[in-house]
TrEMBL record:
PANTHER family: RIBOFLAVIN KINASE (PTHR22749:SF6), RIBOFLAVIN KINASE/FMN ADENYLYLTRANSFERASE (PTHR22749). It comes from Bombiscardovia apis. The gene is ribF. One of its GO terms (molecular function) is kinase activity. This is Bifunctional riboflavin kinase/FMN adenylyltransferase. Belongs to the RibF family. It catalyses: riboflavin + ATP = FMN + ADP + H(+); FMN + ATP + H(+) = FAD + diphosphate.
Length: 418
């Protein structure tokens, strides 16, 4: 797979690369945050059509996300997001490099990663699509049924179909995500810690129509597709990681650097890898989870690999099989079952004392302590085990940690069919 990183000029014009002078392209456009099963259905159709027609399978994605750019503008009198500002949105499910890795697995030939700017967003969808036809040789555009693009988001599938019919220069294919309908999600998603052990169920299950109306009104809900990034965020913020993973089609994960902590876990016989605050990915609600810990290597090496996958501005970079893919593979020696803790250390907090929220991971790797300081790691979430609790003493906590490790090991083994 080839990747081009493209930066619009100050007027919002992109210098699109010429992919071929003889070969057309099948194209899709979007943010693709989370790369859930709806996104996968669209991209799989792009790849299938491209193979049938002997054309390129092309994905145009945006980094940073439109939400990050527009949120910054709202808070800074309509200003563009400066190049030195962090680009990651706090609600982003996964970094751009991970989206590209999954696109490569699906068979995409070319990813064009466009730096989203306000000037770029101000261009009409007609101008945008005209450039794709003229420069990329777009013969077919594939979109999900709720896709929009261009100034004022005026380019919905109906408007784009009208343009396709009027010009005759490209064909629009709309992919229904084939998901299980719609879901109700609060307008403002806030973390809701489950009240007991085990993964919470759907609070709407078994409700009558009257009860459903009352609940959705009380929680100021909106209706979204079940297979949507918004619904995934809501589920993760409620501890329903298994339900979120079903929509994603893969385990939700965050990535970050292992830093030094207080080593209390080591003192209790359960040493943990402490993940620094500069992590990538959406952090689920506080609690203890079962999952996996994957060592992606020293931070410099892992970061260089991710940056090279993005490609330099205006260049074309070939992304081949990498060491990261080997590390992520099932059965990899860099991959261990793990119990995962998100929250503050309540047991050790004195009266009036508050610990900051941390992500700690205990790799279940036999008797060997894993020396991972300075490494980038991936933490994959499989199931919610229990809420955080304050224990009477260190012995009581150690006993619970032993149970967490046993539960996590069983769940991880079941997830890989062992």
């Amino acid at each position: 797979m080839k990747v081009s990183r493209l930066e619009p000029d100050s007027s919002g014009i992109v210098d699109w690369p010429t992919l071929s002078t003889t070969k057309k392209s099948v194209v899709t456009v979007g943010v693709f945050d989370g790369m859930h099963r709806g996104h996968q259905a669209v991209i799989e159709r792009v790849v299938s059509l491209a193979h049938e027609q002997g054309e390129y399978a092309v994905v145009i994605m945006f980094d940073p996300s439109p939400k990050r750019v527009h949120s910054y503008a709202e808070a800074h009198s309509g200003a563009e997001l400066p190049s030195g500002e962090p680009t990651q949105d706090a609600d982003e499910l996964m970094p751009a490099s991970e989206r590209m890795r999954l696109m490569k697995e699906l068979g995409v030939d070319w990813v064009l990663s466009v730096r989203y700017t306000l000037a770029f967003a101000a261009k009409s969808f007609r101008y945008f699509l005209g450039a794709l036809v003229g420069k990329l040789g777009m013969g077919t555009l594939v979109l999900g049924r709720d896709a929009t693009m261009g100034a004022g988001r005026a380019g919905n599938v109906e408007a784009i179909e009208d343009l396709s019919q009027a010009t005759g220069v490209f064909t629009l294919e709309v992919v229904d995500d084939a998901g299980p309908g719609d879901a109700w999600v609060p307008q403002s998603i806030e973390a809701q810690v489950p009240q007991g052990p085990g993964e919470p169920g759907d609070p709407l299950e078994g409700m009558s129509k009257a009860e459903l109306r009352a609940w959705t009104k009380a929680h100021a809900c909106k209706k979204v597709r079940t297979w949507s990034s918004t619904n995934v965020r809501y589920l993760l913020a409620s501890g329903r990681v298994g339900a979120a993973n079903e929509i994603l089609g893969h385990a939700h994960a965050v990535e970050g650097e292992v830093v030094h902590g207080e080593q209390r876990g080591r003192e209790l016989g359960y040493p943990t890898a402490n993940i620094g605050q500069d992590y990538e990915g959406y952090m689920p609600v506080d609690g203890v989870y079962a999952g996996w810990l994957v060592d992606l290597g020293p931070i410099e090496q892992a970061s260089e690999s991710a940056e090279s996958a993005k490609g330099d501005e205006g260049t074309q970079t070939h992304v081949s099989a990498s060491g990261q893919e080997t590390r992520l593979a099932a059965g990899s020696p860099w991959r261990w079952p793990a119990d995962i803790s998100i929250g503050s250390k309540e047991t050790f907090a004195g009266e009036g004392q508050h610990y900051e929220r941390v992500l700690e991971v205990n790799a279940i790797a036999g008797d060997d302590w894993l020396e991972l300081y300075g490494h980038k790691v991936r933490v994959e979430f499989l199931a919610y085990l229990r809420p955080q609790e304050k224990y009477a003493d260190a012995d009581a906590l150690a006993q619970q940690l032993k149970q967490d490790a046993a539960d996590s090991l069983l769940i991880a083994q079941q997830s890989e069919g062992r």
